Amino acid sequence: MDDDIQDIAVEAGALVLESGGETYRSEETVVRVAESLGARDVHSFVTPTVVIFSWVNDSGRHFMNMKRIYSRVNNLRKLALVNDLSRKLEWSGRTEDPKHLREELFKIENAPVYPSWFIIFAAAFSSMFFTFMFGGSFTDGLYAFCYGFFLRIMVMFLERTPLNSFIVSLLSGSLVSILAESSVLLPFFIHKDIVMIGTLMQVVPGLALVNAIRDLMAGDLMAGSARLVEAVMIAGGLSVGAVSGLLMTGIL
Amino acid sequence: MTSLTIHDILFAGIWSFGAAACFAFIFNTNKSDVWWGALFGALGWMLYVGIKAETESGAWANLSGAFAVAVCSEICALVRRRPATVFLVPGILPLVPGGGIYTMMHEAVQANLDRAASAGYQTLTAAGSIALGIAVASSLARIAVHVIKKHHQRRLQRAERAVPFADPFSDE
Question: What are phi and psi of A62, to 5 degrees?
């Protein structure tokens, strides 16, 4: 039973963090899951890279467990599912069935994701709409669609490698920039800057910014500032990458 | 003051709706949640476009857009029982100053340092006002949730003796 509490609570907290949840949500989830399984005096501490929690069992023994988080992906469906589970546990009080809870978590961890081709096309369409939003013409939209398509394929490939987010955004910025600069070879006229901005909108650090502010407002200053640095790093990588095409055409 | 027709605002709404919806799919959001996030994205961008044309103040436009998106997301999160992030991330995305950063670097590389600095300040102001909008809205939401929870607890305490033990998974 004690081992179950250790495993399940830390797993639930890690799941929230790994799918892009806020720090306080992760802490709350750990506490709720552990309490529903019968732990007493639960305390949890979560930063963007680690989940730690300590608790006391019925016979008064102290326990502590931690899990290091290596990769954080953005999966808002998993986040919503874990939140549902944690809500259910809060309203229903104590459950004596760790096996059931383990199954639920396993189900959430393997929740269905959209197929890759669908995500690639969604990204391409979002680039196109962003370009229209910033005042691009019809041709601009078509170019942004193609660039967004290639950009998402590259990002999906890079996310499977152990590269960090700075390098990924640097590479995506330079890919789009080089594509946009080389578009002068093609017969159609496009507004280069609008197309580039529209295409790059799908990799701007929106989630990192939102989470940073929400963490700071919840009082998790350490996690909030860490995420703010992450957002600045991604934005820096993008902007440096985005001028690389310009520099290259200057050299050539 | 630049002239802005209703037609412009309508199209701004349509494009930002599409952009936010497609972006929500990239983050693997549930189909039923996508529409709300996209709707708030369109609302925020329409407000931004309208206010920017009226007052010519980017900071004010960003602030009101972000605040509207954040408040709607928090309300929707309470009603639909989801984390507010699910609606807030796609909703806020059209406002994120991606263009400003690009302009800044672009001008800096071409040695137009004055223009680079001006674009940089504009970007910082925009990011700051978006942050302020989200921060105020989420603090308000925390207060509201606190009050609601207190109310619920008091009601539950009153009715506690009548409630039997409930199995958390019984509704499946």
Answer: -95, 140
The answer to whether the CB atoms of A88 and B106 lie below 8 A apart is: no
Asked if A167 contacts A241 with a C-beta cutoff of 8 angstroms, the reply is: no
B171, part of any domain? no
Nearest Cα of chain A lies from the Cα of B107 at a distance, in angstroms, of 10
Q: Work out the number of other CB atoms within 10 angstroms of the CB of residue A27.
A: 24
Nearest-CA distance A241 → chain B (Å): 10
Instruction: Say how many domains are in chain B.
Output: 1
What share of chain B in percent tops pLDDT 70?
A: 91
Domain that holds residue B143: 6-160
What is the per-residue pLDDT across A161-219, written as a single tens digit (0 to 9) for each? 888 888 999 999 999 988 888 887 777 788 888 888 899 888 888 888 899 998 998 88
State whether B168 and A216 contact (CB < 8 Å). Answer: no
Looking at the domain assignment, is residue B170 inside a domain? no
- The CA angle A144-A145-A147, to the nearest 5 degrees, is 60
3-state secondary structure A224-240: HHHHHHHHHHHHHHHHH
Q: Give A-chain residues touching B18 at CB under 8 angstroms.
A: 125-126, 129
Residue B95 lies in a domain: yes
Chain B nearest-CA distance from A79, in A, is: 8
| pLDDT tens by residue, B6-19 | 888 888 899 999 99
ipTM given for this complex: 0.86
| B83:A83 CB<8 A | yes
The answer to whether residue B89 sits within a structural domain is yes
Is the Cβ pair B28, A123 closer than 8 Å? no
Q: Are A206 and B18 inside 8 Å of each other by CB?
A: no
Interchain contact, A76 vs B134, CB within 8 Å = no
Helix boundaries (H) for A19-115: 23-36, 76-92, 98-109
Q: How far is CA A106 from the centre of its chain?
A: 20
- Using alpha carbons, list the distances in angstroms from residue B6 to A84, B13, B41, B50: 41, 11, 18, 9
| Chain B residue with Cα closest to A218 | B139
> Residue B109 is nearest to which of A79, A238, A246, comparing CB atoms?
A246
Compute the distance between CA of residue A31 and CA of residue B140 in angstroms, rounded to an integer: 24
> What pLDDT shows up at residue A160?
85
Residue with tokens 């300040």: B121
